[in-house]
UniProtKB/TrEMBL annotation:
This is AA_permease domain-containing protein. GO terms for cellular component: membrane. InterPro entries: AA/rel_permease1, AminoAcid_Transporter. The keyword Lipoprotein does not apply. The lineage of its organism: Eukaryota, Metazoa, Spiralia, Lophotrochozoa, Platyhelminthes.
């Protein structure tokens, strides 16, 4: 069992440089680049302007990554944003950040990504008809349960799963980029918007701001490794390298992937197509279109694993700070995994679908009780 001289039990240090890079890249690259990378294009209206914004968003994320690399080496504590806000502003603001992150944002993210995994897994089975809603929900729940078991069983196993699915994502993107350059080699750039990339550009502040908002959302996840910094073997050396390298790789991948899309799919089609990569595969590979659907499913499966892997560490740190039930800081006696959050994640993620309903029900009850004390000129006796 791991521990320090003061008797504090801690998780094993299993994350090296390669594993750290895979955690970040696997968390940053989700289904968005494969499904519908339209946010920036819809905002600035042209191919050239959208590519500039993809690069600019990547560089902007890199600046934030530099800051987190410094914070991670200065404050050697897992939990990322929560730990840094707790250290700088005290327990109240730290609690607010933790509550939003682990009760609202992360479980909802896990649920959405799991549903996307289910839809793209079922797409080859139901290519020409709507997918059964119950099948999508059950497969999404099964995805969460499988990843829950992996994270409860072993941190080493969960990072290996992250490694494998990150390589799958990169392989899919490399396939898209290579076929895109092959299309350019065949002269396809002459009949695509790449020939006049800045035609119709919208350089207004509103368009650029909206484009940045969409782009930065696609780059989210570069700070996920900071959630696990206590499990890194050599964080002072590996964290800055992993964060910077991952941001550069993802920036290049996103930009070149968009160039590849424009060689096959028209701008107007990209704006209205719900699954750009699948449409592109259908045109290039004909009967092999389902391959890209499988890659999107693998990408989302890895995304769920990355989100759950890092979220459990925020719960763990909050438990140590007594801002969550102390039991959340308990580790499995043999596996040294924060199994209590991981085992409850299947309950938290689906519950976000009903959060609005619970709010309405609770609000109705409170409002009904408040009316008891109001004077009304007209009352109906029940």
């Amino acid at each position: 069992m791991g521990g320090e001289p003061n008797g504090r039990v801690q998780m094993e240090k299993t994350i090296g440089l390669v594993q750290g890079i895979n955690v970040i890249i696997g968390s940053m690259i989700g289904s968005g680049i494969f499904v519908s990378p339209t946010g920036i294009l819809a905002s600035v209206k042209s191919v050239g302007a959208s590519l500039i914004l993809w690069v600019a968003c990547g560089l902007f994320s890199l600046l934030g990554a530099y800051c987190y690399a410094e914070l991670g080496t200065l404050i050697h504590r897992s939990g990322a944003d929560y730990s840094y806000i707790l250290e700088a502003f005290g327990p109240f603001f730290g609690f607010l950040r933790m509550w939003v992150e682990v009760i609202v944002v992360r479980p909802a993210t896990i649920a959405v990504i799991a549903m996307t995994f289910a839809k793209y897994t079922l797409q080859p089975i139901f290519p020409d008809c709507p997918q059964p809603d119950m099948a999508v929900r059950l497969l999404g729940a099964a995805c969460i349960l499988i990843i829950t078991y992996i994270n409860c069983y072993s941190t080493r196993l969960s990072t290996r799963v992250q490694d494998v699915f990150t390589y799958g994502k990169l392989l899919a993107i490399i396939m898209i980029i290579i076929t895109g350059f092959v299309q350019i080699g065949f002269g396809m750039w002459l009949v695509t918007p790449l020939f006049s990339p800045f035609e119709g550009s919208d350089w207004s502040l509103g368009g650029i701001a909206t484009g940045f908002y969409s782009g930065l959302f696609a780059y989210a996840g570069w700070n996920y490794l900071n959630c696990m910094i206590e499990e890194m073997k050599n964080p002072k050396r590996d964290l800055p390298i992993a964060i910077v390298f991952s941001c550069l790789v993802v920036t290049a991948a996103y930009t070149l992937c968009n160039v590849a899309y424009f060689t096959t799919v028209d701008v107007h089609e990209i704006l209205i197509t719900p699954a750009v990569a699948v449409v592109r595969s259908l045109r290039l590979y004909s009967h092999g279109w389902w391959i890209m659907s499988v890659f999107v499913a693998l990408s989302t499966f890895g995304g769920v694993n990355g989100a759950m892997l890092t979220t459990s560490r925020i719960f763990f740190v909050a438990g140590e700070e007594n801002q969550m039930p102390r039991i959340m800081a308990f580790l499995h006696i043999h596996k040294l995994t924060p199994f209590l959050f991981s085992s409850n994640a299947p309950l938290l993620a689906p519950s976000q679908n009903h959060l609005d309903r619970w709010n309405i029900d609770a609000g109705s009850i409170v409002l009904m009780l408040c009316f008891i004390f109001f004077h009304s000129p007209f009352r109906i006796r029940l």
